Amino acid sequence: AQSVTQLGSHVSVSEGALVLLRCNYSSSVPPYLFWYVQYPNQGLQLLLKYTSAATLVKGINGFEAEFKKSETSFHLTKPSAHMSDAAEYFCAVTPYGTGNQFYFGTGTSLTVIP
Amino acid sequence: DTGVSQDPRHKITKRGQNVTFRCDPISEHNRLYWYRQTLGQGPEFLTYFQNEAQLEKSRLLSDRFSAERPKGSFSTLEIQRTEQGDSAMYLCASSLRTVSTDTQYFGPGTRLTVL
After folding, report:
1. A61 to chain B nearest CA, in Å?
2. Which of the residues B103, B111, B112, B113 would you substitute to probe the A interface, choosing the one with the greatest number of A C-beta atoms within 10 Å?
3. Fewest CB within 10 angstroms: A14, A45, B36, B66, which?
4. How far is the first Cα of chain B from the last one, in angstroms, to the nearest whole number?
5. Helix (H, G, I), strand (E, B) or coil at B70
6. A110 forms bridges with which residues in the sheet?
7. Residue-wise pLDDT tens digits, A37-89
């Protein structure tokens, strides 16, 4: 079975500060992991994905995430927050080699304080 | 722009009415997925198609929900006898099945309000 836990439903950071959004996964098989961002009243946009290549994955808008198998984590980071980063962020897992079902976390709402 | 499109973007209906939503995937994508997203939650998988075949439908919420993809291109999601609990955002995604895995690309969603 696959599942994702996002710790912290709301995160606030100051503009220019480090962004850290946490994601822990549970998977009975090697996982593929994704981070999506959702702006109000819009669909989800892919930020980055881990598909068993490099464990440090770089995405769009300066975001990156590191796959740590020993910690079953895939935390999302950005060195310096921008006002435009304010949005809802979702972590998702799918079993390796299938991709037919994505399991999403409950999301983390990021607020950026000027 | 040739992303995933959904129609309508908003739908308000009265309890007991039937509603149908349409999704047009990215043209070369052979897989199409439907999700439901309620306020404060992540998307919840409902069903998916590979070409015209519906490969997983056990997670459709009830027998009032059905989906079709008759020609392997666009898809429709129908909800019969709507209930207030059906109020949610319905998201469609598409992907190109590859050897490794798929990356799902999402449409803007259809927001359903049942009065």
Report:
1. 17
2. B103
3. A14
4. 34
5. coil
6. A11, A87
7. 998 878 899 999 998 778 899 999 999 999 999 999 999 999 999 999 999 99
Q: What DSSP assignment string belongs to chain A? A: --EEE-S-SEEEEETTSPEEE--EEE-SS-EEEEEEEE-TTS-EEEEEEE-SS-SEEE-GGG-EEEEEGGGTEEEEEESS--GGG-EEEEEEEEETTT-S--EE---EEEEEE-
Distance (Å, rounded) from C-alpha B32 to C-alpha B92?
7
Cα three-residue angle B64-B69-B74, rounded to 5 degrees: 115
Chain A, nearest residue to B100 by Cα: A97
Q: CA dihedral defined by B2, B39, B54, B21, rounded to 10 degrees? A: -60
What would the pLDDT profile of B86-110 be if each residue is shown by its tens digit? 999 999 999 887 655 678 899 999 9
Task: Say if residue A114 is preceded by a cis peptide, omega within 30 of 0.
Answer: no
Taking only residues 31 to 60 of chain B, the set having a beta carbon closer than 8 angstroms to any beta carbon of chain A reads 31, 33, 40-45, 48, 55-56
Using CA atoms, how far apart are residues A68 and A105, in angstroms rounded to an integer?
Answer: 18
